[in-house]
Amino acid sequence: MQSLEFPQIVTHAATATERNQRRARAGIDKALRQRLERDADRLELLGSRSMFQREQVEASSDVKQHARYGIDAPGVVRAHIVFGSLLALTASIGLAWPRPNPIPASWSIGAAVVAALLLLYAAVMLRSSLVSKKRVRDRLVAALALSGNERVLDAGCGLGLALIGCAKKLTTGKAVGIDLWAAKDLSNNNPEATRANAAAEGVADRVDVQTGDITRLPFPDASFDAVISMTVIHNIPSRDGRDQALRELVRVVKPGGRIAIFDLLHTSRYKDVCKAQA
Ligand SMILES: C[S@@+](CC[C@H](N)C(=O)[O-])C[C@H]1O[C@@H](n2cnc3c(N)ncnc32)[C@H](O)[C@@H]1O
After folding, report:
1. What value does the mean pLDDT take over residues 90-109?
2. Which of 77, 218, 250, 265 is deepest in the core (most CB within 10 A)?
3. 69 lies in a domain?
4. pLDDT number for residue 42
5. Which residues span the domain enclosing 16?
6. Per-residue confidence band for 278, with pLDDT thresholds at 50, 70 and 90
């Protein structure tokens, strides 16, 4: 009884029960005995409810926040899923239509093939965001060969996948992330979510999240030991803009420092621009 969550309610119910028990023992009437049984049921219900609530409270205090690194190009993924599903539905209706079928079979088959390709592309993009990117991140961070005391910049950090990967390798160093928080490039892209991810991964004290454009970095020359950037630079639409971003990465890294870049497009040019600037 003492372990219940609602001591007052339970105590009240228990007192009523005790009173009824006494009267029932005195043989007042049969109806009273039935009421006594109802009281007992009520007590049991209260007991179960309070136990359940206590378990919920205990569970919620144990809940550990997990970092979420988002989905790249969420609008593109959504559009592929929506159009793919609509085409798949159209193709199914076309193929299932009773004869004589006004829709040519070749149209329905064509729609089914395009639908399959759209949905496959969406699945590949989702897998890349949720699985493959983490492996790439691990390789990229390893390439920086961090010893623990470095100051590292993640250019276009988004929700902190590479930023936090670097921070985990640091002891006295600092990982600085900078981003413009473009919603079209990454789902739920915002600095608070990135800080929450750093806290969830236990590296909040080694992470600094800032807002800024990587084509105009707000840092002095040679202020970082290493720079990392993942799937960012191709999002800058013009070649001049991408070149400018690369020159900025080279400018802020110390002589002898490392730059690790992973990107989806234009990568053959990146090395040349970086070498020319260095
Ligand atoms: C596909 S997301 C990748 C985010 C993160 N690097 C990752 O791998 O999860 C691209 C990121 O680049 C950022 N970005 C694009 N252009 C930028 C710019 N000129 N300056 C700063 N960030 C930029 C976007 O806001 C977005 O967060």
Report:
1. 90
2. 77
3. no
4. 45
5. 7-62
6. confident
3-state secondary structure of 6: coil
Separation between Cα atoms, residue 28 and residue 95, nearest integer Å: 77
Q: Is 229 helix (H, G, I), strand (E, B) or coil?
A: strand
Q: In angstroms, rounded to a whole number, what is the distance separating the alpha carbons of residues 237 and 233?
A: 9
Alpha-carbon gap, residue 151 to 220, rounded angstroms:
13
Q: Is the CB of 215 under 6 A from ligand 1?
A: yes
Ligand 1 centre distance from Cα of residue 96 (Å): 45
For residue 153 and ligand 1, the question of a CB distance below 6 A is answered with no
Does 67 reside within a domain?
A: no
223 lies in some domain: yes
Alpha helices in 177-224 (DSSP H): 191-200
Looking at the structure, do residues 238 and 195 belong to the same domain, yes or no?
yes
| 132 found inside a domain | no
**CATH number where 240 lies:** 3.40.50.150
Integer Cα distance of 208 and 30 in angstroms: 74
Q: Are residues 102 and 185 in the same domain?
A: no
pLDDT value of position 34? 62
φ, ψ for residue 71, nearest 5 deg: -115, 130
For the segment 130-180, what is each residue's pLDDT rounded down to a tens digit? Answer: 999 999 999 999 999 999 999 999 999 999 999 999 999 999 999 999 999
Q: pLDDT tens for residues 182-223?
A: 999 999 999 999 999 999 999 999 999 999 999 999 999 999
Helix, coil or strand: residue 273? helix
Maximal C-alpha separation, the chain? 103
The whole-angstrom separation of Cα 204 and Cα 197 is 8
Report how many domains make up the chain.
Answer: 3
